[in-house]
Amino acid sequence: EIVLTQSPDTLSVSPGERATLSCRASHSVSNFLAWYQQKPGQAPRLLIYRASTRATGIPARFSASGSGTEFTLTISSLQSEDFAIYYCQQYKNWPLFTFGGGTKVEIK
Amino acid sequence: EVQLVQSGAEVKKPGESLKISCRASGYRFSSYWIAWVRQMPGKGLEWMGIIFPGDSDIKYSPSFEGQVTISADESATTAFLQWNSLKASDTAIYYCARLGQLALDYWGQGALVTVSS
Predict the structure, then answer these.
(1) Which of A5, A81, B103, B114 measures 20 to 30 Å from A51, CA to CA?
(2) Nearest to B103 among A46, A101, A102 (CB)
């Protein structure tokens, strides 16, 4: 099983500031990594796939990079609607597509 | 428009059985895997398993194999998640999601299952 470790657990950021979230894989997942956003009471939403490609309708302030075992999600200028929990997920190890534990982005 | 619509919230007692559903529309149901994901109260996302409705090929996470049954009815474009004997620890929100070529690209709204005596 590939274990994904996200850090930090919680990130306190002021609106307009940059947020940088990390996801580390226990084994290489190449670029088969996705990022999801989940707001309270809502289902997760796909933000990023193939490590760095924004999903349809995702604003350009969301960017992501990485390959192998180290990945980063960056939100360039946090808007009020971006405060949420963010999860990474690997889809390299078929059929067990594990999730990271999540990073909560909260208002500072 | 792709949509996954899940059945409603359920309140059950320990030992009871339950089958929840996920009805898909707006795409060819038989051509995409459907995954089930658990979210326990205040916790993260857990991969449970996945089904290909076209041939009912099913893959379970080792953590859930034997604990739940995943199935699908291609004619009804609906996937199911079933328990034979619920436990209090099954209390969670359960999501279905479509596995596109781009990871889990569409999600159901979630179904809250509460198991309490």
Answers:
(1) A81
(2) A46
- Nearest CB to A99: which of B47, B107, B109? B47
Give chain A's length. Answer: 108
- Can you say whether the dihedral through the CA atoms of A72, A63, A65, A91 is positive or negative? positive
B53-74 pLDDT, tens digit each: 999 999 999 999 999 999 999 9
Residue A105 CA: distances (Å) to CA of B39, B43, B104: 18, 15, 22
Chain B nearest C-alpha distance from A79 (Å)? 23
Q: Which of B5, B104, B105, B107 to mutate to test the interface with A (most CBs of A within 10 A)?
A: B104
Report yes or no: B43 and B57 within 8 Å, Cβ to Cβ. no
Question: What pLDDT, in 10s, does the model give residues A27-69?
Answer: 999 999 999 999 999 999 999 999 999 999 999 999 999 999 9
Report the C-alpha gap between B65 and B81 in whole angstroms.
12
Cα separation, B58 vs A78, in Å, equals 40
Taking contacts as CB-CB distances below 8 angstroms, the residues of chain B near A94 are: 59
Between CA B59 and CA A91 the distance in angstroms is 14
- Token digits for B39? 């979210």
